[in-house]
Amino acid sequence: MNTLLNHDELMKKIKKVRREMIASGTTKGLNHADTIQYSQELDQLMNQFQPGQKF
């Protein structure tokens, strides 16, 4: 992700990617490439938060 999002946009994106990751993990399995990709994207989004922030 190249651009920084504001707090509200970032939270919306985190929630969306988390839902997609859970759906993928449930239907395709935890080791499926799509699930892993969602997990990595979620990690990147969460790393944009300041340390100590709650999700």
The number of helical segments is 2
Order of helices and strands: HH
Rg is: 12 Å
> From the helix content, strand content and strand pairing, which structural class follows?
mainly alpha
Residue fraction in strands = under 5%
- Name the average pLDDT: 87
Q: Total number of β-strand segments?
A: 0
What are the segments in which pLDDT stays under 50 over at least 5 consecutive residues? none
| Shape descriptor | elongated
Largest sheet: none
Features:
2 helices; 55 residues; mainly alpha; elongated
Structure characterization notes:
This protein is an all-alpha fold and 55 residues long. Helix content is 67%, strand content 0%. Helix 1 packs antiparallel against helix 2. The chain has one domain. The mean pLDDT is 87.
Topology:
Elements (H helix, E strand, L loop, with lengths): L6 H22 L4 H15 L8
Helix pairs in contact: 1-2
Quick structural gist:
With 55 residues, the protein is mainly α.
